[in-house]
Design a protein that fits this description.
The complex is a heterodimer of chains A (655) and B (203). Chain A has 655 residues and is mainly β. Chain A contains seven helices and 45 strands. In chain A, a hairpin with a 7-residue loop joins strand 14 and strand 15. The chains are: A mainly beta (655), B alpha+beta (203).
């Protein structure tokens, strides 16, 4: 006790000295935010709703987490690229095919960037797209059900990082290769990188009516590491921009060898020209194996379809399709401002933030101000495209978002701060520390033509001492920063799920009113749905036993089942016949080698069970559904193989 | 019958047309789990949920206390009431055309009697649902009945049940009032006419 007091005194001295140092250096202009004031700014009273939905990618969790802003409340985790035992995603027969790929069923991936669909350059709240980096895929989440409804694999790709950024009307979602690979894949020495390794830039078409995705075309590009992307808007609509690093084409010790060049490239792709070339038949069909998985709303069943070819464009044969803009030091982020004129890059090892001008770029192309040409891709002169450089912004600039009021905000990983600068004058006007080492930042709508420039959310890689310690593994931290005034103000600090790389946010009213509450039983087209308890039954087809079961507060029908034999494959087709919002029922059986089923009102789900032991096994409802939830249980009797116990089923019989 | 009275009776009988389009009665229930309420509308020919699936949800909830499921198809009143409404439209028009006060008097009495019988019938249904419970129900509370109030609000376990007329019920009431006013005006005018007549005879 005494030592602590002494050390407290010691700390007080240090703090006082530091305070003195501050006074000596000149007070920071901004008074520290009064805690009560910040609390008020993020306080959403019980029972009230947040102003924004925020969709944070889960990074290595593979999922998407949905938060309310400004409260920072976690609303939901949407399973996407990783199985989710909590609700049976990836375990039930209806959802397993969603994770099907050319490499088979994959239980996990690394999800990076959430992107909301857009109409006229504004987030429209219809769908959320997210990329899988490891085994290249793009998933589409329906924002009426907050559920992954489609997934498309990207062929000829590895490390789908510059994805799934959207064009102004979600005509396309982009994808590209962060890792060069032999295209098509081949058994070649790694040391032949320069000869054999290539990249691809892919455009995924999105059906405006139902959101269905298809790989419209791919462009084969040099084997650089394509890192991030942003589509043009307004005047630059029709273009998409991709950063690249490792223009050195190193295949080992990249941290050194890929950092040698003073400048790498932003690839500017004119997708309208690409469409023209496709129309002219310049696209080549290339054999490729990839999957497109789709979950039907009426059946709730996911079907996985194999695709066998993709259309490829070669820049050598397609002049005007793609240009390289030299950009300092391994640029990471590339972000087009709301006017569509400025393209800001985050040269992560650069001392400036270079900003290209779209109109200057067009002029440079017209005047053929090329430094050289690589594989049919003209390299424009840096001076010819650059609009300005933000001088000494901070260390490690990564990503830029916009507030729609003429300012840009760039995250700085190394100096761990958000730096605000003015578009046009390129001067830094404010900076605020984050805790610690932030990657992406997000302003609601900050990547669109119409930002709701109220907050910045900083997503940090290092948490350290921000929260109560939880052993070696810590949650990543996010900070909510108010940007409505001249000076940025830290409002809130909240832990996140996995590693949120990028995020999106949208005013709540754009989504909340169309949120689905139940699956209507009359619209349930699942071929094995049981819509009334009287229709519940058990059917044997050889060694396959199908149990058509209903769940309603607070019983299953049937709840006594006999005549199952070792060697049988038992399908529990359970339908939640409730038609009331927020009355889910869960289902599991003792010894199940699977996760539970969690069924929303009106939904049918299928759990497969292969009993290995003779005996009587209880099953029960896993979601506390009602006052008599504990009673919502039943038994299934398993007899030895070849047993003559007749198949029977009942509810409420006997005694 | 005088013109004003005829007009009033005309309106009173035509009000019954609206009963085909709006509910007569509503029962709403609030509970901690149902802040938005769950409820039923009673129409002249059906019982429906206040919101989609409210009737099904109500039946699911009621099965815990052993209450019979509310199955609109098995309630004969719902088949009869449309004819009663039709009868009042037609008979009202007859009253207007025949212009006889005796008919108006009969019509008014029939309206009141039918309405009262309806209320009693509704009470009896409520009594039956609330008292004739399945002895094997999950929730059994000795002495507890689950009859909804006839009119007004009552706490039933976790539910605060409110039973009130809906627009149709008020229209029915309005129809009675209009008929009563028509009858009263008619009587009053005749009385006045009668009291003046002898005077003029003398004069």
């Amino acid at each position: 006790m005494k030592t602590r007091r002494i050390s407290n005194v010691g700390w007080s001295v240090v703090v006082l000295l530091l305070a003195g140092a501050f006074i000596w250096m000149g007070c920071p202009e901004k008074p520290a935010l009064v805690t009560g004031e910040a609390a008020q700014a993020v306080y959403v009273p019980p029972g009230s709703y947040d102003e924004f939905y925020a969709f944070l990618s889960g990074g290595f969790s593979g999922q998407v987490s949905v938060y309310g802003l400004p409260s920072g409340r976690l609303l939901k985790i949407i399973p996407v690229f990783a199985v989710n035992a909590e609700n049976g995603y990836g375990f039930s027969e209806e959802t397993k095919p969603m994770l099907n790929t050319s490499s088979g069923f994959l239980p996990w991936d690394d999800s990076h960037h959430t992107v909301l669909s857009q109409t006229n350059g504004e987030a429209d709240g219809k769908w959320l797209f997210i990329n899988a980096n490891n085994t290249p895929r793009v998933a589409r989440i329906d924002l009426a059900t907050f559920e992954t409804v489609e997934m498309i694999e990207i062929p000829n790709s590895a490390g789908n990082h510059a994805s799934p950024f959207t064009t102004e009307n979600s005509e396309y979602i982009v994808a590209s290769t962060r890792f060069g690979v032999p295209i098509p894949q081949a058994d070649v020495p790694i040391s032949t990188y320069k000869q054999n390794f290539r990249g691809t830039i892919s455009f995924i078409g999105v059906d405006p009516k139902n959101g269905k995705m298809n790989v419209a075309f791919q462009i084969v590009v040099p084997g650089y590491n394509y890192d991030l992307a942003s589509a043009g808007k307004g005047p630059s609509h029709g273009w998409a921009f991709f950063t690249s690093y490792n223009t050195e084409e190193a295949h080992t010790l990249l941290e050194v060898r890929a950092s040698r060049n003073d400048k790498d490239f932003i690839a500017a792709v004119n997708w309208k020209v690409a469409e023209q070339y496709l129309k002219e038949g310049k696209g080549k069909k290339m054999a490729a194996e990839y999957y497109n998985n789709y979950r039907d709303h009426a059946t709730r069943i996911t079907t996985s379809e194999k695709r066998t070819s993709v259309t490829v464009l070669d820049p050598n044969a397609c002049p005007g399709l793609i240009y390289f803009l030299p950009t300092p030091k391994s640029p990471h982020g590339v972000d087009v401002d709301p006017t569509g004129e400025y393209i800001a890059a985050g040269g992560k090892l650069a001392a400036v933030i270079p900003v290209h001008s779209f109109s200057k770029m067009l002029k440079a192309i017209e005047n053929k101000e090329f430094e050289t040409t690589i594989n049919g891709i003209p390299v424009l002169k840096y001076e010819a495209t650059i609009a300005g450089e933000v001088q000494n912004p901070g260390l490690g600039p990564l990503h830029t978002e916009f507030d729609g009021k003429g300012y840009a905000y760039t995250s700085h990983f190394i100096s761990s701060e958000v730096v605000k600068w003015k578009i046009g004058t390129w001067e830094v006007v404010d900076r605020i520390p984050t805790y610690y080492s932030l990657g992406h930042i997000m302003i609601p709508g900050g990547n669109t033509r119409k930002p709701w420039g109220k907050y910045v959310v900083a997503m940090n890689k290092i948490t350290k001492d921000r929260y109560l310690p939880t052993g070696p593994e810590l949650a990543h931290a996010a900070q909510l920063i108010d940007i409505t005034g001249d000076r940025m103000r830290l409002l809130l600090d909240f832990p996140t799920v996995g590693e949120p790389h990028y995020a999106q946010a949208i005013p709540a009213e754009k989504i909340m009113d169309k949120s689905v509450q139940i699956y209507k039983l009359e619209e349930n087209k699942h071929p094995r749905a049981t819509k009334k308890a009287e229709q519940a039954r058990v059917v044997r087809e050889g060694n396959i036993v199908r149990i058509y079961m209903t769940a309603v507060r607070s019983h299953f029908t049937p709840d006594n089942i006999e005549g199952i034999r070792i060697g049988d494959k038992v399908y529990f087709h359970v339908t939640n016949i409730e038609q009331e919002w927020d009355i889910p029922h869960g289902f599991t059986v003792k010894g199940s080698q699977n996760a539970e089923l969690l069924l929303m009102a009106g939904e049918t789900g299928t759990l497969v069970w292969e009993p290995k032991k003779v005996g009587v096994f209880p099953f029960y409802c896993t979601d506390f559904c009602s006052a008599l939830h504990q009673e919502m249980q039943g038994y299934i009797r398993v007899s030895p193989a070849g047993s003559t116990v007749p198949l029977s089923f009942s509810t409420g019989k006997g005694e | 019958m005088h013109t004003t009275s005829k007009l009033l009776v005309l309106v009173a009988s035509l009000l019954f047309v609206a009963l085909y389009f709006v509910p007569l009665w509503q029962i709403t229930m609030l509970a901690p789990q149902y802040p938005e309420g769950i409820g039923l509308y009673i129409w002249i020919n059906e019982i429906s949920g206040m919101r989609p699936n409210n009737l099904e949800s109500m039946n699911i909830l009621n099965h815990y206390i052993g209450m019979k499921a509310i199955v609109p198809e098995s309630i004969p009143e719902l088949r009869i009431m449309p004819y009663i409404a039709g009868f009042f439209i037609l008979s009202g028009l007859v009253v207007v055309l025949r212009k006889k006060r005796s008919l108006l008097t009969a019509w008014l009495i029939l309206l009141v009697v039918t309405g009262s019988v309806g209320l009693v019938d509704y009470y009896l249904w409520g009594y039956d649902y609330g008292h004739n419970l399945d002895p094997n129900a999950a929730i059994k509370i000795p002495g507890m009945a689950y009859q909804p109030p006839l009119i007004g609000t009552k706490q039933i376990l976790n539910f605060r049940a409110t039973s009130l007329p809906h627009l149709g019920g008020y229209l029915y009431l309005a129809s009675i009032l209009l008929a009563a006013v028509a009858w009263y005006l008619d009587v009053k005018r005749d009385t006045r006419a009668n009291s003046q007549q002898p005077a003029s005879a003398i004069g």
